[in-house]
């Protein structure tokens, strides 16, 4: 049985209510779902909660999947909606204090790497995630999906439900804001994002080998 036929069979089983089939279906996406949620969460535990909430929604919505797009694209669209909606609902709450280094990143390697280098890398990752969380949500989503998760322009456009030109514009603006944040500039003004959404631009892609389909 070809891989795509196996996938379709697994999806069909899960749509019929098989929890085991669903677990097998989404198991390879769990790290990516959690990583995406992390860009919209204040802490690792919050990211876990968001990821769990998103997967529950995927399970409940699975019967609506009709193979009109790649399963991965459909799954990310559901996850994206849940995570972004949850982040919006929490936006009015008081910001929590800065998170400590995540345990999986703060743990120092046990091999030849000097402890200070391992700690420096963990701190740099933490600084990057902190900066990502400060981006306006439409830029944050595009940057995480494309630069972190490695989706193509077409896939990001399908997940977000926007034209490819909008994806490129959001990526370009998001990367600029992210560079400013990492360089110590002030946090971005969310109102500024409204002026750029829907415009097209080339965007400097870290996926130079990829092209639009």
TrEMBL record:
Record CDD domains: Sigma70_r4
UniProt GO MF annotations: DNA binding; sigma factor activity
Disordered as annotated region, ranges: 89-120, 184-213
An annotated GO BP: DNA-templated transcription initiation
Xref: InterPro entries: RNA_pol_sigma-70-like, RNA_pol_sigma-70_dom, RNA_pol_sigma70_ECF_CS, RNA_pol_sigma70_r2, RNA_pol_sigma70_r4_t2, RNA_pol_sigma_r2, RNA_pol_sigma_r3/r4-like, WH-like_DNA-bd_sf
Entry keywords, A to Z: DNA-binding, Sigma factor, Transcription, Transcription regulation
UniProt KW Metal-binding keyword: no
Residue ranges of domain RNA polymerase sigma factor 70 region 4 type in the record: 125-177
Pfam families, A to Z: Sigma70_r2, Sigma70_r4_2
Biased composition annotated in UniProt, kind: Basic and acidic residues: 89-107
PANTHER family: RNA POLYMERASE ECF-TYPE SIGMA FACTO, RNA POLYMERASE SIGMA FACTOR RFAY-RELATED
Database matches in NCBIfam families: sigma70-ECF
Protein name in the entry: RNA polymerase sigma factor
